[in-house]
Amino acid sequence: MGPIDLLFHLSSFLAPALGVALGVAFAARLLGLGRGAAHWWAPVALNFLGGVAVLLAGLWFFGNDGKMATYAAMVVAVASMQWLAGRNWRR
Q: What is the pTM for the complete model shown?
């Protein structure tokens, strides 16, 4: 595998985590639930790292990527991290 192919594979592997992280962080801002961080990129980075961790755990557990169970776990994990980071348990 060449370096360009490796770049395409890594970007395709990480794209769902980035998409969910952006979507959840901006939805929380629009709904008024993202009051924990002053900058928009802080919850996105935190959610992205959590999503990548779940994707890597799914890759390790199932032996290949792209399982719907991994994606469902990633959505739950990212949403939970956003809820905790926004201190929404105080409401």
A: 0.86
Measured from the Cβ of residue 69, the count of other Cβ atoms closer than 10 Å reads: 10
Q: What separation in angstroms does the CA of 46 have from each of 25, 62, 84, 85?
A: 10, 24, 11, 9
Tokens read off for 87? 């201190």
Q: For the chain, what's the residue count?
A: 91
Please give the Cα distance from 81 to 91 (Å, whole number). 16
| Each residue's pLDDT tens digit, 23-54 | 998 888 888 766 656 677 888 999 999 999 99
φ, ψ of residue 63 in degrees (nearest 5):
90, -10
> In which residue are the tokens 């901006």 written?
26
Which three-class secondary structure state does DSSP give residue 5?
helix
pLDDT of residue 54: 97
Tokens of 27: 């939805």
